[in-house]
Amino acid sequence: MGEVYKVRHLISQRTEAMKVLLSGSGDRPEIADRFLREIRVLANLSHPNIAALHTAFRHDDQLIMVMEFVEGMNLSERMNRGLTLEYSLNYIRQVLSALDYAHSRGVIHRDIKPSNVMITSAGQVKLLDFGLALMSTPDPRLTSAGSLLGSIHYISPEQIRGESLDARSDLYALGVTLYELITGRLPIQGNSFPEIINGHLQTVPQPPSAINASIPEGLSAVVMRALGKDRTERFQSAAEFHCALEPVRVESAMDWAVTTEKTFVTAAYPSPQPVTQKPVSGRPSDPSQRHYDNAVLDDISKQLAHYIGPIAKVVVKRASSSSNNLRELCDKVAAEIDSETRRKNFLVTVRKHLHTSGEI
């Protein structure tokens, strides 16, 4: 419904993305309303894994939005270059963090698919295109009987049936995306629109581990749960989905990769790796042997939740299993906060624990 231009602000010299309605779209009230809805949805979202809205305005009766310019490639393009399991899980976890935030604010994306997930050169995910997003209070002007919104290969069964939607519809679409990332194929396929629709409603896809024996059984089970036909069978929240992926570990990024026709490329899109510090003398260097006080971790999670929401507990848990000391743990979780000022404020609040542990 729109065209996106790469532009430069003449005063700030900042490169931005400018999205405008396609010529003639403004004459269709529903399209114009959806564009305005996207602006209003994005205006209320601020998360490091969601492309930010900078401003919006009208020019010659044309509605325009100016957004953060994300330099990189979308997940579909990235997948065509070849992906390791480690990369795939890293990207999906970041999308789940964005969805957990959006869902907590009553926003359902409704169009989760690889082409709407951008990957920066630093490996950071940016979720795009909230043009079909649904607020917790639907606008009747944006719902028409018999209409089917979303991308057909990623659409949930309840969307097809025209039922009321909730966060679990996004989780189904992300389950389809994860299946595609780790197997190199879509879980539901068909030669026609009706075949694909019927597949979403009735066909149970082959488990990923049956397609590739290198895929861990635990991960395969997680994916199949996300693809439950009945939404009550799926994960009930993005945070629950995220937690289910926590036990999945990859020994080597190069041991496993989806087979594609193109050469596997790593140089331009490195998987984000935490900066490791030398272990403090007298402390264990193996993170698996490092034990943290549960009360300390709970307090850090509580402080972090003020900045990134309920996913904080999962982030802290993951960091505790891969950090050599408390300072490193705090630095890792602080990296999830989108503002340098906010990161500094967070680190100030948790610094007391570093004093207690003798790391300052």
What does this structure look like?
The protein has helices at 29-43, 75-80, 85-104, 157-160, 167-183, 193-202, 208-211, 217-226, 238-245, 294-308, 312-320, 326-334, 340-357, and strands at 2-8, 15-21, 53-59, 62-68, 72-74, 107-108, 117-120, 125-127, 134-135. The chain contains 13 helices and 9 strands. Helix 10 crosses helix 11 (312-320), helix 11 runs antiparallel to helix 12 and helix 12 (326-334) runs antiparallel to helix 13. 40% of the residues lie in helices and 12% in strands. The protein folds into 3 domains: 2-68, Phosphorylase Kinase, domain 1; 72-137 and 148-245, Transferase(Phosphotransferase), domain 1 (Orthogonal Bundle), CATH 1.10.510; 287-357. The radius of gyration is 21 Å and the shape is globular. The chain has 360 residues and is an alpha+beta fold. It has a 4-stranded antiparallel sheet with strand order 1-2-4-3, with helices on one face. Strands 5-7-8 form a 3-stranded antiparallel sheet. Strands 6-9 form a two-stranded antiparallel ribbon. It starts with a strand and ends with a helix.
How is the topology of this model organized?
Layout lengths: L1 E7 L6 E7 L7 H15 L9 E7 L2 E7 L3 E3 H6 L4 H20 L2 E2 L8 E4 L4 E3 L6 E2 L21 H4 L6 H17 L9 H10 L5 H4 L5 H10 L11 H8 L48 H15 L3 H9 L5 H9 L5 H18 L3
Antiparallel strand pairs: 1-2, 2-4, 3-4, 5-7, 6-9, 7-8
Helix pairs in contact: 3-5, 3-9, 5-8, 10-11, 10-13, 11-12, 12-13
N-to-C SSE string, H for helix and E for strand:
EEHEEEHHEEEEHHHHHHHHHH
CATH level 1 class label of the largest domain:
Mainly Alpha
- Enter the CATH topology name of the largest domain: Transferase(Phosphotransferase), domain 1
Strand content: 5-15%
Radius of gyration computed on alpha carbons: 21 Å
Percent helix range? 40-55%
